Amino acid sequence: MDIKISNSLIQAVSADAILVSLYEGVDISSGATGAVDMALNGAVSELVNAKDVRGKLNETAILYSRGVMPAQRVIVVGLGKIEDISLDRIRQAAAAGAKKARELGCKTIASCVFGASSMDISSAAQSMVEGTLLGLYRWRKNHTSPVEREDVDSLTLVESNAQKIEAVESGISTGQSVASGVYCARDLVNQSPNNMTPAALAESAQNMANEAGIKCTVHDLEWIRSQNMNAYLSVAQGSANPPKFIEMEYNGSDEPPLVFVGKGITFDTGGISLKGADGMEDMRSDMSGAAAVIGAFKAIAKLKLPVHLVGLIAACENMPSGTAYRPADVVRARNGKTIEIINTDAEGRMTLADALSYAAEFKPKAVIDLATLTGACVTALGQNVAAGYFANDDSLAQKVNEASNASGEKLWRLPLYVEYYEKIKTDYADIKNSGGAGSGVGSSAVFLEEFTSYPWTHWDIAGMALDKIGSTPLYPHTHPPHVTRGATGFGVRALVSFAREWK
Ligand code: BES
Ligand code: MN
Ligand code: ZN
User: Is 349 a catalytic residue?
Assistant: First the structure.
């Protein structure tokens, strides 16, 4: 989709639809909405006075200009109460407006930057672009039937003040980079697991890296063995698809790196501790952490951020078979610690254990891992509500909070209590890979902590990787309009925000 900027007045722009925003209970006589109302001889006022539209967040209404303006129609988009305005609400409203435009078959849309009177205009423009692109995302790769409505071709952001054009332009460019990273992550997760094997994931990372000018090395089984990554190998050994260890590096600075680690289970059957059939197909999303890391690298390279980044993904598939690992097996991880297997479905932490110990080789300033690790985290915080995060360092946790707030991707801190550690003690090895029923998300995090030796934060994104409902007016919060059905690409935006502020 083409995104342009125009230094003009919204009512003078020609497009299939122009978008104007409406706050709840606020007089519309001023600003772009007022100008369009005037051009339409009071049609927006009439809509508002009749209470046909109230300006509630993401509410839309359509008016036809019938020749009085060059644009064929006006889509009025609600922004909610003026005191509640935020970058996330701008992102949502832009998505709601763009989706409405596509539903109507519009190919060209134009809009002012919503909320610009009370927000930083560059950030608001970024949110407009993110909302539009993310809301219009569709996964059509395996469909042979044509779409009902074609894609929107272009969005023009209209700004009348020439002094603000530069700021809007920079916001557009940031928004495009971020959205391209989220698209990349969503595409990877939406692929079916027969296609998205560990080798295919590695190839996708390699292709992204080649395009972005990033270093990427794909290590094969032999290298993984030479690294003594036996925790990771124990999971991989059950699958006919060989594991691939993906290592990416982006050199935006000479400082010691920040390392992103992504869980990359291309399909999680549970292994010998087999999952039930109901919903098992969702385990296509068990490489969402890896996808977020790859997507974030793509966005960060496009943005040319001045950071040194390393990305690590221990990709493999968790299958039951004659060669699969079993409950009661004991394996020695890369860092020498022995692990007793209690449940082969607790495979993510096995692969992350060795990736986290390998991360130490880079003498990192900090490590962030992202993983669809536990159903318990979903139970704790809710499906499509927030990801949980753990941190062994308070100043790092502070930075995670800031990245969460800046990006609008919700991350809620959970504790690393020593009681959780007691739940993974065993008579048979140093630790076991499951704390058993009721041990919560905390026992998975303290398990990972055993393999860290640097400032570290773990993001459990199990409840955020997939959107099973898609946005509907009934679920405005858990399903905001910029989140589409299927893969969400969760984590990319927060990682980019984190990297933008990293010093
Ligand atoms: N990939 C799953 C976690 C998951 C659950 C992700 C729901 C997305 C949605 C993970 O590998 C898993 O199976 N975890 C187990 C751990 C248990 C066996 C200790 C779980 O949460 O039940
Ligand atoms: Mn599992
Ligand atoms: Zn898993």
Answer: yes
